[in-house]
Amino acid sequence: MKKIILIILTLVCSWEAQGQEVGDSLSMAPVEFSLPPLTMRGTIAHYPYYNGLMMGFHDWELHPGLNASLSAAAIFGFGSNAGAGFANSMALAYAGNITPKLSYSIGGYTSFLDYASHVMKDAGLTAMLNYRFNEHWEAAVFAQKSLIKPKVPPYLYWMGDVGDKIGASVRYNINPSLSIGLSVWRGTAP
């Protein structure tokens, strides 16, 4: 029951709505570049994306060309989770168009977390290919390959963005600010 409430709260709190631009019609402007978002760590995002709500991170929307994401944090906790630590991550991705409807990205990431007596390390490559059929429908395939065996404490597997992943997704864009998507992927835990 607690897990269901957490998922509902995550979805409700992370839903971002924007006002519609001034215009005569409800149709969307043609988009020539479109890719599913990555996490701020540069890994393939899954939903509900717990890290966005709990850790202050959000999706990483790529633009054509070279994209970079750098982060560093000092962490401390009280009570039964008392401890202190440091975390950092770096991700680079290059994104572009093969054709006006076919977009791609390829990149790499590395991250490190040292908290109390627990250490998490991960580094790998990501690739995505997205095809936009029309202003509403698009489909993507994606892959993520860890180059090292990630060292992750078992109770942190819920983060879901460590290890290898391969999958596909379909998304229906209702308007520029709201879309519904379905993705199927297979991931291997470290």
Kindly give the count of domains: 1
Q: What count of helical segments does DSSP give?
A: 2
Computed Rg: 18 Å
Structural class: mainly beta
In CATH, the topology is named Porin
Report the sheet-strand fraction. over 45%
Low-confidence stretches: 11-26, 48-53
Give the N-to-C terminal Cα separation.
27 Å
Describe the largest sheet: 7 strands, antiparallel
Give the overall silhouette.
elongated
CATH architecture assignment:
Beta Barrel
What is the residue-mean pLDDT, rounded to a whole number? 75
Percent range of helical residues: under 10%
CATH class categorisation: Mainly Beta
Number of strands: 7
**What letter string, H or E per element, gives the SSE order?**
HHEEEEEEE
